[in-house]
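Box S1 | Example of a co-folding query
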Amino acid sequence: MSTPPPIKVTRSKRRTRTITARRLPDGVIEILAPVDVSDKDLAPVIERLTQRLRKRMEHARLSDDGLEKRARELNRKYFDGRLRWNSIVYVTNQQHRAGSCTPSQGTIRISDRMATLPAWVRDYVIVHELAHLEQPNHSRAFWDLVNHYPLTERARGYLMALHLEPDTAGDPSGEEPGRQ
Ligand SMILES: [Zn+2]
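Box S1 (continued) | Returned holo structure for zinc ion
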């Protein structure tokens, strides 16, 4: 049901026995392994380490409660506190999309990769998805709302550099560049 995070295996001659995993800043999980371990032997270890890392992510500093709290602050700051939603939660199955919103249900999902990114990038993603509660598509009116968040353009550049697709929010042509 959920897609595992991207994994990069690095083999090192210097690592004689231990296999370790770490989460890189861009969300990729790097497995450090000795050079002579076969892929077959490595697979179960990767599975176990990945699960452990994900569990740690679930208890990360920014929990779903933190996300809800931050969304309320951003709602007050950039939307005059007028937005209402049912839930905003982290999900582990959106590794290539920063976030998504189902306006009809009032539900927002944020990729757990955002939990490890700078707060100003995460704030942009939250503002973006919040704006969809009022504007389902990436229309001019949508970007007018989102651009109240002053770091919008910088944050979009940051996400593009990580190849994180913005959501397509129902418009088949994908996301148009925002106009200031
Ligand atoms: Zn969008």
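Confidence is low (pLDDT under 50) at residues 172-180. The pocket of zinc ion is lined by residues 128, 132, 138, 166-167, 169 (CB under 6 Å).
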